[in-house]
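Field reference: "sequence" (input) and "structure" (output). Example, Integral membrane protein:
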Amino acid sequence: MRTLTLRGGARVAVVAAEWRDVFGVVTRGRVQLELRDGEPGPVLGRDAGFWLRGTGVRALRNPGRRTARVRIVTPRARTVTCRSTHPHASHRMMEDDMNSMNDTGVVAGPASGRTSPTHRLRGLAGIGFVATLAAMGATTLAAALAQAVGVDFEVPDGGESIPLPGFAVVTGFFSVVGIVIAAALLRWSARPAARFVWTAVSLTAISLIPPLLSGANTATTTALLGLHLVPATVMIPTLARSLRTRTD
């Protein structure tokens, strides 16, 4: 037998060959099963028993902050011939065989099995920072091209034209907001990539409403709508891809 220790937020991948004929029992805390398609599975409490062969589970996750422990029972691979007619004889022999095995421990930190949350978040932040710079540059360039063809970016409410640096600042701010959302989902969601895409697309759609209500001329409104989509096409795929890489 061996004990798997999952610290708060830990995630350990399930290797099918290692779980083929083993039986697990939660002896402390809670353990959530993560299904093969990334969907969060059931959360098992203390004294819950389970086996993973043929279940489509790809990882075990500790959804809470308290350390969880799973006792993993692996029967010794041997053939036992028993002539006893007692209905529980073979069960007792297997139980004795299991109890005679050494009890070893495996500790999983709050990571995805290979890297800690700090390393994953740093990697996501680094990629997000580069994507933010790219989004700021692309948006500012698109705004400059729009100005070159005659778009004045004048909003009636303010009475002034939006300067080019203003596009860079706004793009950078909301890109950082996107990185924060992605980091939170990476830390606490079982499906960070899918949930991030859904959230980011929804927020992008909402951001298209102000230009439509600004009262600007058609050219300015159209350009503003396009400039909302430019950073979205840079940030959303980049962060979603990074989230998938760090949860596989």
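The two ends are 28 Å apart (CA to CA).
The longest strand covers residues 23-28.
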